C-alpha cells in the first residue's frame, strides 16, 4: 500500500510587487492526498501562491509548512515539490524515455529501477511504445502527459500544476481532466491545481479555493461552491447566475423578502451565518437551470414570479437558453431542458410575453 504523502499548510502568506499586493494574507490547509484547486481570474494571485509553494518566489510575510516542516525559505530542489507548467518544458533533444528518466538519473537511481518506473508511468498515461519518440513528434496532449509523469516519477510529496491544460483544445482538455483525476487517485500524491476555468475546477477538485484580488473568498467542495457561494463574486464567477438587486423588506428566519426596483417582491434564502436585516442591500442569485418559463402565469402559489418578453433564444441540443427582458430593463437567462417536442417550450419564440418563475428556496440572498 502506497504511503500517504504529508499535507501542506499556508499561513498568512503575502507577496508584494512594488505597490501591488499580489497575495494578501492568505491561509489554508490541504489534506494529504487531496486534489485542491486554486480558482480565480487572471491576476487574482493564484499562480503567485503556487510559485511561493514551489520556491520560485519568496513571500514577504507568512509561512509554508510541508509535513509539519517549515519550507518557506528552502530552495526549490530541497522541498520535495514538483511543478508542471502549461508550456510542457520538455527537453527537445531527449526522447520520451530520457525526458522522464532525467530526474531519477540525476538522483543516481539504478538503470533497471529507472526502466521499471518509467515503463509503469508511460503505461499509466497510455504512452507505452512512445519511449523513443521526441517531443516534436508528439501532440499537445501527449506532451502534457509526458510532462506530468516526468514530474511524478520522483514521487514528490506535492505536485503543483499551473494551468497545465490551457494550451490544449477543448476535447483533449476534457479527456485529460478525467485522466488527471484517475492518475492523482492512483499515485496518492497531493495535487494543487491552478486554473481560471471553473469547469476544470468543478470537474477535478476535491475542494476549491476561489480567489480574487489576492485573497481567498471561499474554500469548499465543488457542489457547495456552486450551490452555496459565499458572496456575489463567487456566485458570478462559478457558472452562470441571475442577480436581482434590492433591499430587504422583511426577514423570517433564514428567508428574506426583497424589494427589487421595477419588479415584484421576491423571496430568497440566506447563506449560513449571513447577517442581513430589513433595509440592507442584497443581491438575490438564481441559477438559470433553476428557473422555469411559461406563456401563462403559473396557477400555483409559492413561486417567485416575474413577467417579461423573450429577447433571444439559443437552441443547444440538450437544452434551450432563453434570454428574457424584464420590465425594469434587466435581462435574465433560463436554461430549459429539451425533453419532448410536445412540450410548451417548443412553441415559445422571439418577442413572446412570458412568465419566469422559480421556488424561493432556489434563490440565494447574498449581502451586497
Structure notes:
With 368 residues, this protein is of the alpha+beta class. It folds into 2 domains: 8-232, P-loop containing nucleotide triphosphate hydrolases (Rossmann fold), CATH 3.40.50.300; 240-367, OB fold (Dihydrolipoamide Acetyltransferase, E2P), CATH 2.40.50.140. It has helices spanning 46-54, 96-106, 111-124, 140-152, 170-187, 198-204, 222-227, 232-237, and strands at 8-17, 20-30, 35-39, 61-66, 69-70, 81-84, 158-162, 190-195, 207-212, 215-220, 242-252, 255-259, 266-270, 281-286, 292-294, 304-315, 319-325, 331-337, 353-358, 364-367. Helix 2 (96-106) crosses helix 3. It is globular.
In short:
With 368 residues, the protein is an alpha+beta fold. The chain folds into 2 domains: 8-232, P-loop containing nucleotide triphosphate hydrolases (Rossmann fold, 3-Layer(aba) Sandwich), CATH 3.40.50; 240-367, Beta Barrel (OB fold (Dihydrolipoamide Acetyltransferase, E2P)), CATH 2.40.50. 23% of the residues lie in helices and 35% in strands.
